[in-house]
Design a protein that fits this description.
elongated
């Protein structure tokens, strides 16, 4: 099973060009980024990046997966926005005044 964090680390390496820059962006150690990208490659059974002294570059297979990775990222972001919206709506509803069993208004009978 794929781990979203591993996908996120790979996307950061692609965008930043190196594991060091990705680690800074993600707030983790460089060795963590390197290890997680290697684990993702192992799980997929695909070589996704070429490691160069000047940085990382996607392999042809990595390039082919990039649009799907971006779709996953957007789906996760959409899910997070939806969850936040639901939490916000629940919070607002919890703070609405509650009516008792009968309305507080009095009606005049004619």
């Amino acid at each position: 099973m794929l781990d979203w964090n591993d996908l996120r680390y790979l996307l950061s390496v692609v965008r930043q060009g190196s594991t060091l820059a990705a680690a800074r962006t993600l707030g983790v150690n460089q060795s963590t980024v390197h290890r997680r990208v290697a684990e993702l490659e192992r799980q997929m059974g695909l070589r996704l990046v070429h490691r160069h002294p000047t940085g990382y570059r996607l392999t042809e297979m990595g390039e082919q997966l990039l649009p799907a990775l971006a779709d996953v990222e957007e789906s996760i972001a959409k899910l997070q926005r939806t969850v936040l919206g639901l939490k916000h709506a629940r919070h607002r509803a919890a703070h609405l005044p509650r009516a008792g069993p009968f309305p507080h208004r009095r009606f005049r009978l004619c």
